[in-house]
Design brief:
Elements (H helix, E strand, L loop, with lengths): L5 E5 L4 H17 L4 E6 L5 H7 L3 E4 L16 H19 L3 E4 L6 H10 L3 E5 L6 H6 L5 E4 L15 E2 L6 H4 L3 H12 L6 E6 L6 H13 L6 E6 L5 H10 L21 H5 L1 E2 L3 E4 L5 H7 L2 E4 L3 H10 L3 E3 L9 H10 L4 E3 L7 H12 L2 H10 L5 H15 L12
Parallel strand pairs: 1-2, 1-4, 2-3, 4-5, 5-6, 6-7, 8-9, 8-12, 9-11, 12-13, 13-14
Antiparallel strand pairs: 10-11
Helix pairs in contact: 1-16, 3-4, 7-11, 8-14
Main location: membrane
Protein name: UDP-N-acetylglucosamine--N-acetylmuramyl-(pentapeptide) pyrophosphoryl-undecaprenol N-acetylglucosamine transferase
EC number: 2.4.1.227
């Protein structure tokens, strides 16, 4: 009788590490429906809500960030790694884990340390063009390295042995057909007839700089019926943003978009949350990114590696505003993957104002052919297959039979 596959994934902190981990878990379940997949993280990050909501068990350990800004506390890092690694080893034994995967970010490092202590095979996935501190450390503890972008190899310890598998993304995005989903998406978000849509997406928690620029742009464009701004604020900034849109004459407190009263159809959840007006609507989150990318003519967003992979795969033109405090300025390096290809414009955070965006976006919206060229310019790479490719590597390390041909670089 075959032993069920048991995999523990270290992922946490931000959605940029968690969502690829969830995509991998989904791929493992596709390859082996009996697979037991669980996660290791901390109690600080988004993993405490995102992972259980996706139906997976989360084990938490005590760990501190790999952050020089900690000051004297950084000297506690070795002790924290030993303690959290021992906690992770206990989890691995309880789960009867066969393979451990580290998806990057400080919550994943204890999982790799625990695997080393337990004598289990492990593999890390580096999602950014410039690797983070946690994976730079973890790369010294495992022989098995995978990366999302070829350029990461040069910056990763032992990178010459890394496999480029792409960035694991959700199956709904890997198979996204934007034209086929577009009308459903426009109805879901209640987009006015004929309006072009600019999506502002600041990441898991929103981005104050992008939200402020979006509100300023909505005020500048109030009264226009040919453009619609969809602003993802994050839950904390939602009420304030909606009020600012109303005060600017760009939003309304009345009936939300997304309700087809005549047809009597149930509104999409976004409609129930949207503070909508003739120019802009604010939503706290986007749990259907396939709809969000399908409705958008242009996306203004940060440049996390998962976002870059999604934009490239879906073929969505973008204005990228890298987070200026990302370690190693890795978001700027990520952004250049698309901007150098002509698929996006790169705008520094400090220059991201309503005036600057209006100057850039207005000509783009007026030229659909140019937007189409941008959408086709990105190399989609392996991202649509990345979750399955990484899953096959994991299954091979577990000594299980693989369901597809082994991937090699």
């Amino acid at each position: 009788m075959r032993t069920p596959l048991s995999v523990v994934i270290g992922a946490g902190g931000t959605g940029g590490h968690i969502y690829p981990g969830l995509a991998l878990a989904e791929a493992l379940r596709r390859a082996d429906p009996d697979a037991v997949v669980s996660f290791i993280g901390t109690e600080r990050g988004l993993e405490t809500t995102l992972i259980p909501a996706a139906g997976y068990r989360l084990h938490t350990v005590d760990m501190i960030p790999f952050d020089p800004a900690l000051g004297a506390k950084r000297f506690l890092l070795p002790a924290a790694l030993l303690r959290s690694g021992a906690q992770a080893r206990s989890v691995l034994r309880t789960q009867k884990a066969q393979v451990v995967v580290g998806m990057g970010g400080y919550p994943s490092a204890p999982a790799i340390v625990g695997a080393k202590m337990a004598g289990l095979p492990s593999v890390i996935h580096e999602s950014n063009a410039v690797p983070g501190r946690a994976n730079q450390f973890a790369a010294r503890l495992t022989e098995h390295l995978t990366v999302a972008f070829d350029g990461s190899r040069a910056h990763l310890s032992g990178g010459e042995r890394a496999l480029t598998v792409g960035m694991p993304i959700a199956a709904s995005l890997a198979a996204l057909d934007r034209p086929a989903l577009r009308e459903e998406a426009r109805r879901a978000f209640g987009v006015p007839e004929g309006a072009r849509v600019v999506l502002f997406n600041g990441g898991s928690l929103g981005a104050a700089r992008l939200t402020a620029a979006a509100v300023g742009l909505a005020a500048r464009w109030r009264g226009r019926d040919d453009v619609h701004l969809l602003i993802k604020t994050g839950p904390a900034a939602l009420a304030e943003t909606r009020q600012k849109l109303i005060d600017a004459g760009a939003g309304a407190a009345g009936h939300p978009y997304g309700v087809d009263a005549e047809a009597g159809t149930a509104p999409h959840p976004y409609g129930a949350h949207a503070g909508a007006g003739p120019v802009a609507q604010a939503v706290p989150y986007l749990d259907r990114m396939d709809l969000a990318y399908a409705v958008a003519d242009l996306v203004v967003c940060r440049a996390g590696s998962a976002t870059i992979a999604e934009l490239a795969t879906a073929g969505v033109p973008a204005v990228l505003v890298p987070y200026p405090y990302a370690p190693g300025d890795h978001q700027t390096h990520n952004a250049r993957v698309l901007s150098d290809a002509g698929a996006a414009h790169l705008v520094p955070d400090a220059e991201t104002t309503a005036d600057r965006l209006a100057e850039l976006i207005d000509p783009l919206l007026a030229d659909p052919a140019r937007l189409a060229v941008m959408g086709r310019a990105a190399d989609p790479g392996n991202h649509a297959r990345a979750a399955d490719l990484l899953a096959q590597t994991v299954i091979r390390l577990a000594g299980q039979p693989t369901t597809t041909r082994e991937f090699t670089s």
